[in-house]
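Input record (one chain):
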Amino acid sequence: MRIDRMLFANFPPFAPGGIVFPEVPERTGAEVHLLVGENGTGKTRLLSLLLNALGNQAEIKTRVDEPEHLLAFVSASLPNETISFFSRSRLFFASSHFPTKSDLQRHVGFSLETIPKRLPLFPDTTDSPLRRIGVKGFCDHDVAANRPMALCYKGIASISDAKVSSMKAVASRPVSDDLVFHKDPQESDEVGQLMVNLKLAAAMDLLQNNDSGRNIRLTNQLETTISQITGKKFSFRVVDHPKVELRVDWGTKKQMRISQLPDGLRSIIGWLVSCCARLSMYLPDDPNPLDHPFVLVLDEPEGNLHPAWQRKVLPAARKLFKNAQIIAATHSPWVVSSVNEGFIHVLRFNSDEQVTVDPPKPCEKGDSYIDVVEDVLGVKEWFDPETEALLAEFRDLVSKGGPAGEIERLAAEIGGRGEYLAALVGREMAGFRRKSQQPKGA
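The corresponding structure, as predicted from the sequence alone:
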């Protein structure tokens, strides 16, 4: 399954409108869509609306005062065989009110011509099977029916030491439990147990001389990915004395408890390891469960990470989950500049203090984090607020031809703050002196 678009109205702080998720042509890893914008532009709200369509209504209820007034539509592409009454792609909704064709035009402001012809229009009846599945959500972990899956995580250090046993089964849970940003306290135990099961199953593969077995490949893929992100060799270890525990070898440090790891590494384990372990559990007969197409929703995956790791985390996830669709909200220029295949969706306030979403901007392979800071995140300032204020005063005086003595004084004060600033104001002062034909030192 992949998400095609979201349309909405009565959804503060957004103006009536929507967001489109184009497919990435000839991609070499997971499809990535990045939501960026200043605080208050509703990035997490958009993710919560998506989670509502996928099967969890709790997140949106905490962020919208009157969710019953929200009119929203989410379009997803699904294989024909997934659910019998779905066509290849159909427009869905994520609200308690099932819309008619006139609702679409009147409330959302989208003309019918803007919707691809391959998407059927809304039925005018309220007893359609689409209504029932719309309320329930697209996503269901009914593996026997080969239904689509989605997982969501927030980039926080939520995983700690787990209470585990040797090869203890982990029960399946409702889809809504996988679609919350703040996980239940038992998440650590479940993820820890899933990893213990995977490591022990990999050990059994080795005992049977099955070096290329499913469990060994899964374990190696996961541990290699974390090693690449952190720059140090990483592996899980199951110890059995004096009790069964999940430990970590990381670089030169051996048998570390999860609680002893840095918060950034615990943050990565919290979503990356959980994601791998749950795919393995939900798809027990799939020889390559990490290749399964699913939707991965991430809120600020850069949480607790140094920029050096922020640059690596999404490229590593793209490679690990090569058929996934990743939709992530981020504030990090290092995360944005690290993705060279995908789309950036900029959220910004309009003149009425409502939020609109820019047309999708393709990620560029040559973008640096400096380009992203200026062109995508819209931050033009380079220095601390005090220095920026001095520069603004200096440049204002220069542009107006102010008193030369005051300009020289400000230039000296700014230049004394560092070599780069000295060179910067030196160049601007040279231009000012040429323009005023004032000799140096006058």
